[in-house]
């Protein structure tokens, strides 16, 4: 019975999803705004419960050792839940006049449950199930505007590449099961030498890296990410970049680090190459983008490169830095996409047939028309570039300094050079917003969007100014991995 | 006598057929059939390993995957149907608004 209580956050979310889905059948479209409030309430309850479990430092394993509760899983659950909170607050406005509101919120909650199951999983079966639950729900969410061919194209690309990568993942898992005789992750770690001594084991690990790399959008598995982030509704891009991508990281942390520690240094070289290619390609291609969402998508690819430096260094500080980076990236990127969503929404209010609402020309003189949005977007972009007093600086600092401590100076130098490149395209958007003339008067942002954006802004600044508790919990989480 | 390796070779061949089809075809439905082939190859692996090592876990995993593959097909068909309603075909190569 005690076990069930530890899963209370997931259960609450599942119940909320079902309540929202059923209640939507009986409500008129104009009353469906209440569904958004119900799901926000459910997510807040889940956050409170997850936090109380985390602060009590509970460690437990349940359901025949297929799920575990530890600081690592709780920290990641909080990341997913916070992104879900921001996205669902913003979506109250986005889906307010849609007659499919209930499906939107139910799918959103189910996606988050899938991610939480992944972060708790201790067995390949639960891990794969959570992965797919989150995947299936987000395929449908990306294609939510089903009359818009651009959205459908994004959804179709995401679905095809996602399904192929889960086939790769499953094929790799089947070999891992065959070689080690178990699907339990600690059991695999104990038998990791069986994987290394066998050519099939190597194939299996490569397939696992491909399967997880797709969710993490590491180059060369990133091709879906720019298309999907650009085409999807902006609030869903926030969910994908803020939460879904982090699911790839927690899964890779759980499976690959366990195997990597048992293996030798050669795999670290592979991850070093992947990290360098990912951050360089992401940053260089982002330079030439005219669509702000696509620019953010490439910057998200680049950030995945920074985070995967944690796989190369593999010291406790580096892993803590990676986890801290994941936490701050979730707020920075989700906030930036929500700010872009506001701009897009306001343009569509003015002109229903407007296309390419995320084109950089639409950000000209934004500081005059929407000062709050412009300021928040500026902070998010500066945080992504790693300017001090923001979350981006703290996490980059911890991650890069741990890389230098571990003697990988060349890797840190490449990462710092990349951050310098990235400042260029972030500054370009800021230049458009603050130093370009504009036409049109002052516009007030819709309240739900503004609340979500300001919450993200506060989180980014709090992590930047008072990072100690976040660093503490990130190191607690990292310790779980390295025992 | 049919050994474990026969099953593994069979599943590797099926997986490769699926992967080859994915790279060469551009009809949405055919792509989904290729994905299904790849998933089923993995299921053959799981069941073969499970049978030859007398461990039931692999078969449990296979059952879950069969259900997931069905759900995935449902979502995929829904997306293809939505595209078909707008464009009247599902030749995916011609859907290229989003690039670079």
UniProtKB/TrEMBL annotation, chain B:
Topology relative to the membrane: Multi-pass membrane protein
Signal peptide positions (record): none
Sorted UniProt keywords: Membrane, Oxidoreductase, Transmembrane, Transmembrane helix, Transport
EC number: 1.6.5.11
GO terms, molecular function: oxidoreductase activity, acting on NAD(P)H
Alphabetical GO biological process terms: ATP synthesis coupled electron transport
Chain ranges passing through the membrane: 6-25, 37-54, 60-84
Protein location: Membrane
NCBIfam families: F420_dehyd_FpoK, PRK05715.1-2, PRK05715.1-3, PRK05715.1-5
HAMAP family reported in the protein's UniProt record: NDH1_NuoK (MF_01456)
Protein family: Belongs to the complex I subunit 4L family.
Name recorded for this polypeptide: NADH-quinone oxidoreductase subunit NuoK
Species name: Methanosalsum natronophilum
UniProt gene name: nuoK
